[in-house]
Amino acid sequence: MKNIKFKINNKEVVGEKGETILQVARRNNIKIPAACYHSDLKPKSSCRLCLVSIKDRKGLHTSCSVEIEPGMEVITDSSEIKKIRKTNLELLFSQHIEQCPTCIRNYHCRLLALAKECGIQITKFEDRKKFFPKYQFGPSIIFDSSKCIDCHNCVEMCDKQGVGFLTVEENNSFWEVGPSKEEKKDCIYCGQCLVRCPSGAFEEVDAINDVERALDDKNKYVVFQFAPSIRSSLGEEFGMDYGTVVTGKMVAGIRKLGADRVFDVSVGADITTIEEGGELIERLTNQEGLPMFTSCCPSWVKFVELNYPQFMKNLTTVRSPQIILGGLTKTYLAEQEKINPKKIVVVSVMPCTSKKYEATREELYVDDLKPIDYVLTTRELSRLLKKRQIDISEIKEEEPDAPWDKYTGAGVIYGATGGVTESALRTVYEKVTGKKLKKIDFKEIRGMQECKEAKIKIGDIVVNVAIVNGLGNAKNLLEKLKDNPKLYDYVEVMTCLGGCIGGGGQPMPTDKEIRRKRALALYEVDKKWGLRMAHESPIVDLLYKDFFKNKKNIHKICHTHYSKKEKDKIKIIKEK
To answer: What's CA 35's distance to the chain center, in Å?
Structure first.
């Protein structure tokens, strides 16, 4: 039955078979409070805030878990429901409250909003979990287990990613979420736990204070660079619609912070495309090292190094766009403009918590310098702008700085799943055939599906392509490749659902529809852009005629190597 008619608060609504009361209510702007629910995960009914009554059924029911039926009559608000919701919310706060005044999510916390709505005075509760530990996972993630409300969204998401690092163990009268003690289970820093946690128990390792010190230091030359996907998500933090492109406003806002230069990492993506496309052509020609895997995503790279070292040879040796552009800034740009590279501080604004980890990898250093000094997530940039009273929704647009300003649409679409592959195929097609590509859009590899396959004809060659987003899907693919290594020629993996537009550093909330709007915005920028092929970029052309004439420069800026990884030590940064 496709359309199911029923009533919510005496209003007739329509849903589809398999949908829940909560899903239909939200689509019809009928408010039902919920903390633990997330559309990417299975309903758990743990917070018990989404209670409703259903005619001819005894008791109250969690609307997140009850599927709709024809003729059903639902009431979302009554004196009984309000009383029980308030009690349930008080129970949640009794194991969460101590950190509320200082929590960085304070200004848009779902629990605080619910407390205000229910008239709860949160300061009256004693924190029953105040002695629970606070963990730091590598340079990327903070997990304060005393804030946990036991919804277990993080555990489910970690399992869905095929990682299984987060587990649940009994601790006296509590079930405590914590890191696994198994050697083969390690955090990959993707932050997908973070964007699905309703209580602020997970946060990124904050770099705002470090960045502010650099901005205030007159002896430092501070360069900001921002990822392709940021342009279609940052606006959400300032009340703008999902998918609003704010490139120019973001540039202007960052300049107001005091940055000396503002660059677009899409230029780095164009160079990644050139190098990766060239490597793919070489591997296809020699029929060696296939399938070739993308390596832009540091969580994916770490997962392979830790769990599937036999596939490290399949990873492209090309560095990610942020690392390439940071390296160019501290070499080529420093030389051209006679700036001491040791005085340059590169701040990279990323949609991703794992990019903080990538910036620390020593094999990516250039001339003993880190290409990236600090990584801010999209949310951190928002907090920094707000801290300095800069509202990007109210300022005029400005252009990024030269020389890294003339990017192409092929670089912009890196932010969406399938974008890296499409960018590479555009260039590979023209390099292999020597002909202009008539159909620039590879629509067969676009979309939010978690697994996509395509056969792309390039001259006399048919390239078998696989594109996956969500690391659990990548794990399944690796298991298939164990048995059939010739299944694909080129594989793109993005750890986060939807690609970078759904990254662990992006604004919250996030769901499939929000990710779709962010991705569509990137494709729209590409569609309207004058340059849509990475190899047509005038900046890229200049670099290859000048700086990259020396092959040693190409290698140290654009390529890397991989090595088998062991589990990182888990740091307890604070005992409660």
So the answer is: 21
- What CATH number is attached to the domain comprising 421? 3.40.50.1780
Cα gap 183→42, rounded to integer Å: 28
Residue 109 lies in a domain: no
Q: Are residues 344 and 331 in the same domain?
A: yes
| 3-state class (DSSP) for residue 480 | helix
Q: Residue 157 is part of a domain; what is its CATH number?
A: 3.30.70.20
Instruction: Give the integer Cα–Cα distance in Å for 76 and 53.
Output: 7
Question: Which tokens is 69 given?
Answer: 């039926």
Structure confidence by residue, pLDDT tens digits, 271-302:
999 999 999 999 999 999 999 999 999 999 99
- Residue ending a domain, among 205, 231, 246, is 205
197 and 213 in a common domain = no
Query: In sequence order, what DSSP letters do the residues of 442-464 get, joined into one string?
Result: -GGG-SS-SEEEEEEEETTEEEE
Cα(487)–Cα(154) distance, integer angstroms = 33
Q: Are residues 42 and 155 in the same domain?
A: no
pLDDT digits (tens, 9 = 90+) for 51-84: 999 999 999 999 999 999 999 999 998 989 988 8
Helix spans in 373-440 (H): 378-387, 409-412, 419-433
Enclosing domain of residue 377: 209-558
Which CATH number belongs to the domain containing residue 33 in this structure? 3.10.20.740
Tokens 């979302």 found at? 76
Q: Any long-range contacts for 171-175 (C-beta under 8 Å, 24+ apart)?
A: 171/132, 174/95, 174/129, 174/150, 175/150
Instruction: For residues 376 and 265, give the distance between their C-alpha atoms in angstroms, rounded to a whole number.
Output: 14
**Rounded-to-5 percentages of helix, strand, coil across the chain:** 40, 15, 40
Residues 6+ apart with CB under 8 A from 189: 137, 138, 139, 140, 141, 298, 299, 302, 353, 354, 356, 357, 504
Least confident span in 58-72, 119-133, 296-310, 344-358: 119-133
Q: Which DSSP symbol is given to 451? A: E
User: How many of the other CB atoms lie within 10 Å of CB of 438?
Assistant: 6
Burial 204-213 (b: 16+ CB within 10 A, else e): bbebeeebee
With beta carbons less than 8 A apart as the criterion, state whether 473 and 347 touch: no
> Do residue 162 and residue 227 come from a single domain?
no
Per the structure, the count of domains in the chain is 3
- Are 409 and 466 found together in one domain? yes
Q: Which pLDDT score, from 0 to 100, does residue 576 have?
A: 45
The CA–CA distances, whole Å, from 255 to 135, 261, 375 equal 34, 8, 17
**pTM score of the predicted model:** 0.92
The answer to whether residues 445 and 493 belong to one domain is yes
Task: Supply 466's token pair.
Answer: 């696989």
